[in-house]
Amino acid sequence: MLQKNKEQFKKYIKLSFIGLIAGLVSGFFSTGGGLILVPAFLYILGMESQKARGTSVFCILPMVLTSSIFYYKGNFINWNSAILCGIGGSIGGYIGAKLLKKLPEKYLKIAFTLFLIYVSIKMITQ
Questions:
Q1: How far apart are CA 45 and CA 59, in angstroms?
Q2: What is the CA radius of gyration of the chain?
Q3: Residue ranges per structural domain of the chain
Q4: Interatomic CA distance for residues 116 and 110, integer angstroms
């Protein structure tokens, strides 16, 4: 019984730490879900891929709401862009969640890796 409580406590500490890091990254760079949470859930907690992605999406909501308040107070939001991207993002999120069930894990990893490489190159060269 004591061993089980100790393991559960360690898991809670890991989850809290993962959330803290993701929140910091989200606040600094407006990202954190796919870049921090999904890999952490997969490789630190050993979560299955679809569950890691779904859990990540749910975790993003409180981080985004909290960060958004500070961005709003600092007048750092372009409302026209935000509303249009929000609508497109909702539609894309729906389609992406549907496709997640159908695409093999290998293709998702390749697509995500290529996306990260592309974005990294763009960030360095601009």
A1: 15
A2: 17
A3: 1-73, 78-126
A4: 10
CA 6 to each of CA 16, 40, 96: distance values in angstroms, whole numbers, following the listed order: 15, 20, 38
**Contacts of 50 by beta carbon, 8 Å cutoff, 6+ apart:** 100, 101
The answer to whether residue 77 scores a pLDDT higher than 90 is: yes
Give the Cα separation of 125 and 78 in Å (integer): 24
Assign 104 to helix, strand or coil. coil
Closest alpha carbon to 96 in 50, 42, 60, 38: 50
The count of residues in the chain is 126
Q: What is the pLDDT of residues 84-108, one digit of tens each?
A: 999 998 999 899 888 888 888 888 8
11-15, 20-24, 40-44: which has the minimum mean pLDDT? 20-24
Give me 58's structure tokens: 């749910």
Euclidean distance between CA atoms 25 and 31, whole angstroms = 6
Crossing angle (nearest 10°) for helices 2-29 and 49-73? 50
Rounded Cα–Cα distance for residues 96 and 69 (Å): 27
